[in-house]
Amino acid sequence: MGEIRATDVVTAACDALVAGLDGPALRILAACTRAEADHDVPGLLPPALGELGLNVPAVGSDAGQEAAVRALAARMLAGGLTPRELAFRIHRRFGHELPLAERLAELDDEYDLLELGDRTPARVDADVAAEALRLARHPGGPGGRTDASG
């Protein structure tokens, strides 16, 4: 998702080994130097995760983009992002092009127009939180939509 540095991924691989997880690709990933990390991690991470039984969609695929949206929504729900930060990041990364993320992109636009309307930042925050919760609760289905609107 581009949300963490490659060196942090290497550190996480080391932590996984210390915790008792193991596999050839995980060991290679954990052995990356700081100088190698930015170049090597993107190719090493998918096989290492595969060894651990974790299926990760391809970067840039529809499934990968939707997984990124859901991961950011979960991060906001866990307190790692504010609602405004979530809407901004989603809008910046996907624009209005990804159906699953469209509502969050629209809400980012609403933040930009607050002074022109009668909505409050707290109301838009609540709408973003509700959308993040919807994404977290309903991960399946076409575009992830479970309501009658889409």
Give a quick precis of the structure.
With 150 residues, the chain is mostly helical.
Walkthrough of the structure:
The structure is a single chain. By secondary structure, the protein is mainly alpha-helical. The protein folds into two domains: 6-51, no CATH class; 62-144, no CATH class. Helices cover 63% and strands 0% of the residues. It has seven helices and no strands. The protein has helices at residues 6-18, 24-30, 34-51, 62-77, 83-94, 102-112, 121-137. Helix 2 packs antiparallel against helix 3 and helix 4 (62-77) crosses helix 7. Mean pLDDT is 87; it is low at 141-150.
Which residue ranges are poorly predicted, with pLDDT under 50 across at least 5 consecutive positions?
Answer: 141-150
Number of strands: 0
Order of helices and strands: HHHHHHH
Average pLDDT for all residues = 87
The shape, in one word, is elongated
Structural class: mainly alpha
Distance between the termini: 25 Å
Number of helices: 7
Q: Estimate the helix proportion, in percent.
A: 55-70%
Largest sheet: none
* Radius of gyration, taken over Cα atoms and rounded to an integer in Å: 18 Å
Whole-number total of structural domains: 2
Multimerization state = single chain
Beta-strand share of residues: under 5%
